[in-house]
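Annex B, item 7. Sequence and structure tokens for protein A, then protein B.
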Amino acid sequence: MKVAFLVAPEGVEQVELTEPWQAVKDAGGTPVLLSTQGGRIQAFDHLDKADTFPVDQQVADARIEDFDGLVLPGGVANPDELRTDEKAVAFVREFFHTGKPVASICHGPWTLIEADVVRGRMLTSWPSLRTDIRNAGGNWVDKEVAVCTDGPNALVTSRKPDDLKAFCQAFLREFSAVSA
């Protein structure tokens, strides 16, 4: 199982990157850090700078067929920056068009909204995105984890870092089904 983790050069919530990353590794998979720029990304612990992580590949050079699933971590600034990058948005959209599973947590669905892939889908997020999701045609629910298979692919979403355990278990189930 090879999983793409797409983040902006700055602003990802560190725990929303590192816990799912470790879950993929613990499941015997290969996580790959993609970003809109090369070098290192700067993670955050809420509003404070945390660690930096090396980018494995720029999203502009990534190929959908190389991955079994996509994880979109949150953090307020991270998805806000991603949704302004055409190549990042196109990469996300292509996962839906090819039927590959996607997992997103916290503010991560902002990138899904920009990719215009939430219409008719059930998902959850940080509560402040509720109106954005509904305005984009999605069905927002307040649950620890939402798994929606009513569409071209499986979509796994969660609200916040407190939901990470359930989020990781749910997306690993969906990603493993594809890579098997």
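Protein B:
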Amino acid sequence: MTPAPRRTHHAAPPREDVLAAAMATIAERGLDGLTMAGLGRDVGMSSGHLLYYFRTKDELLLRTLEWSESRLGAERRALLDRPGSARERLEAYIGLYLPAGHRDPHWTLWLEVWGRSQNADDDARARQAAIEGAWHRDLVALLAEGISRGEFRPVDADRSAARLRALLDGFSIHVTVGIPGTGREQVLAQAAEFLDETLSPGAA
């Protein structure tokens, strides 16, 4: 008898490759273009196989956001560790925080995850809070450093960080959705004015 042909098993791509492909799809086609079936074709997996790994599209989106944030976190730590004044590093932090422009894929994903978080379970909400917390802690530490060196006026670092991030979040939404008059360069100028008004040693 002729032996039956042996089945070929294709190894699933590393999870990071799947998440990178998901982000690339968002960048190229927006969130509407990200489907389990389409992503499966891009990475050579069935949509059922993807659901085995991620369970739901909500989980896929959150995992993709966490992957993107891990890369941004590495950039953030590098810029905060580099030499220079606290103000220079604060401006670099703001530049990294803000979207690159209209339809920035990372911020597009963030807004989608935020929108879905109203119905998210406790685990998903805790993971989102962990992302927010990392940005906040780094900003508080940077403000505290600037205050201790006399670069910034003495303020409550935690409270000021919360106010600054709220401002940046609002502007970031405007940049991402493309509200006229709130392009990235305009927002950077507004943020610099806010720092002058609230943190400069001579500010009222």
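Comment on protein B: The mean pLDDT is 91.
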